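To: structure subgroup
Subject: Chain for Friday's discussion

All,

I'm putting the inputs and outputs inline so they're searchable in the archive.
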Amino acid sequence: MTYFRGAHGIILVYDVTDPLSFENIRSWMSNLQANAAADVDRILIGNKCDMADKRVISTQRGQDLANEYGIPFFETSAKSSINVEECFLTLANACFARLKNEGTPQSPANGKTITLDQNANGHIQAEDKGCAC
């Protein structure tokens, strides 16, 4: 699966109202383990946490699955904007920390160099340096 190639971070999302989407996370994790870089940052998200009356996957089950894979876990609501920014910042910060330790990342796919920096608020900023030829 070439669409994992070059990824710095991957978000795995399931619907807390849909047990099949939760079970599919294991399949996606198998695909990641087989096809993505071993050090790619990952995060698990249970979406639609605002739909408590239709929930079938408990927060604890989501947390247990994330613990099994050793990855961060959030419950979000895209509709209500619950934890959306927090989960993206967590993943961005994890990628930033890893890439900063590895040096300036260069994407072999497009030859561009991206410089990462954190502003005073802790937010990640990326500057495209163009072709690194």
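Points worth raising on Friday:
The helical segments are 19-35, 59-69, 84-102.
The domain at 2-95 is CATH 3.40.50.300 (Rossmann fold).

D.
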